[in-house]
Design a protein that fits this description.
By secondary structure, the chain is α+β, with helices and mostly antiparallel strands. The protein folds into five domains: about 110 residues, Alpha-Beta Plaits (2-Layer Sandwich); about 70 residues, membrane protein fhac (Ubiquitin-like (UB roll)), CATH 3.10.20; about 60 residues, no CATH class; about 55 residues; about 70 residues, no CATH class. It is about 25% helix and about 45% strand. It has a five-stranded antiparallel β-sheet with strand order 11-9-15-21-20. It has a four-stranded antiparallel β-sheet with strand order 2-3-1-4. The longest helix is centred in the first third of the chain and has 17 residues. About 15% of the residues are buried.
């Protein structure tokens, strides 16, 4: 029986068509290749149809009852194209008895071939897609790195790429032993590596070298004043204090000495540590101009598109015009995925150039004053844990070009700064 005659679809109601095919039939790969026919029969003929199928080994799937027009009920079953042709032939050989089945819809490869047999472009695209799918199974799709902590995965992938192991590599030509040994010789951070290829995905497991941090060598040090101030509190943990509460010190003056003088053992050198709090004065100046520039896009955009397949970049479209002097470059990369978020080695990159120009705007003095005080509040909040604000005095100056505020601050802060010093150890006589 010719397949074109076999796949002729009868005139049936839309309700039958929409309810005739279970979802599982459409996505089953084997049934897609074999082709699936969805047929219906009246309930009076259903028992006979099923008996003929069972006695002749014709597999029926997805049996269910559907409701049609005027309250009629019919049995819906799914058969392969070969099973439907065999069942129809058996019925015709049985003394010309009327065939009770109505073909509602066909799914699968045979139906697609029949529908597109006169469309050369569609058939060529289908064959090309099948070829690409087959070739894709022969190359590496993805590289996944595990076991790394200090060394980023991108660094390890770059090192593997230098060894000739990257997405798009032909699976049959990959020598994992050679790549593992070569990367271990190249890398100073990895002590062990194992590459396991499962399907088209490479799972790279690594172990990093355990490098002990160098021991810190602390030289003898003094604590000196980082700025002028009046001492209000000392918290000395190591060293000999050289100032007391109430002392007025200048920047660079010695606060805590790291040299001990002992009559019994002589001089001893230490690294002085601690905190020395003092009253200090500071000035914060903030100036906000009334005129300012803002970026305004002209609406002229240029785009370039490229497709990255297995590490190879193919230009889809390229801008042939000269780019404007002022433009923003925006790069968007879309990674194509399969179901469940699985990446495939196809990456679409779109580079957009947006032309803009600078426009001069003017703000009012009130707006500039508000911005200046917002900036002052921000700076005061960033003083730090070792600084405490006692009082502040603020003056505001408004001119034709800007708003300027000057804040005089009185603080209590830690002014101790560690300063190492070198020493010469003479040999004992």
């Amino acid at each position: 029986m010719r397949i074109s005659k076999l796949l002729e679809i009868s005139e049936v109601t839309l309700e039958y068509r929409e309810s005739a095919a279970p979802l599982g039939v459409r996505i089953n790969p084997l049934l897609f290749l074999l082709g699936t026919c969805v047929v219906t029969a009246s309930l009076e003929d259903a028992a006979e149809v099923l008996n003929v199928c069972m006695s002749n080994g014709i597999v029926c799937r997805g049996q269910r009852v559907i409701h049609g027009e005027e309250g009629t009920e019919r049995l819906c079953i799914c058969l392969t194209v070969r099973g439907y042709a065999r069942l129809k032939r058996l019925w015709e050989e049985a003394d010309g008895v009327h065939f009770p089945l109505v073909l509602e819809r066909c799914y699968g490869l045979p139906s697609l071939v029949l529908q597109n047999r006169t469309r050369a472009g569609a058939m060529l695209g289908f064959l090309l897609a099948c070829t690409i799918i087959w070739l894709s199974g022969q190359v590496l799709w993805d590289v996944r790195v595990t076991g790394n902590d200090a060394v980023p995965s991108d660094v390890i992938k770059a090192q593997l790429r230098e060894c000739g192991f990257d997405i798009g590599a032909v699976l049959s030509g990959i020598d994992t032993d050679r790549i593992e040994n070569e990367l271990l010789l190249r890398s100073d951070d990895i002590s062990w590596m194992s590459i396991n290829i499962r399907g088209t995905v490479a799972h790279v497991e690594v172990r990093e070298k355990q490098i002990e941090p160098p021991k810190e060598v602390r030289l003898p040090a003094n604590l000196v004043a980082a700025k002028n101030g009046e001492i209000v509190r000392l918290e000395v943990y190591s060293g000999l204090p050289m100032v007391s509460v109430g002392s007025i010190v200048s920047r660079g003056e010695l606060l805590v000495s790291g040299i001990y003088d002992s009559k019994s053992v002589g001089y001893r050198l230490r690294s002085a540590s601690g905190s020395v709090f003092a009253k200090t004065n500071d000035t914060v100046i903030i100036e906000i101009p009334l005129e300012y520039e803002v970026k305004s896009y002209t609406g002229v955009d240029y785009e370039e598109k490229s497709l990255k397949i297995f590490g190879k970049t193919i230009k889809i479209s390229k801008n042939s015009r000269n780019l404007p002097t002022l433009c923003d470059k925006i790069i968007r990369v879309d990674n194509l995925t399969l179901v469940e978020g699985k990446l495939i080695p196809y990456e679409l990159s779109v580079t957009q150039y947006r032309e803009y120009e600078w426009c001069v705007m003017r703000r009012s003095a009130e707006e500039a004053t508000e911005l200046a005080f917002d900036e002052l509040t921000k700076r005061l909040s960033e003083l730090g844990e070792d600084k405490f604000l006692l009082r502040k005095s603020i003056s505001t100056e408004i001119t034709d070009v800007s708003v300027r505020i000057v804040a005089e601050l009185s603080l209590i802060e830690n002014i101790a700064k560690r300063q190492e010093f070198e020493f010469v150890r003479y040999p004992q006589q």
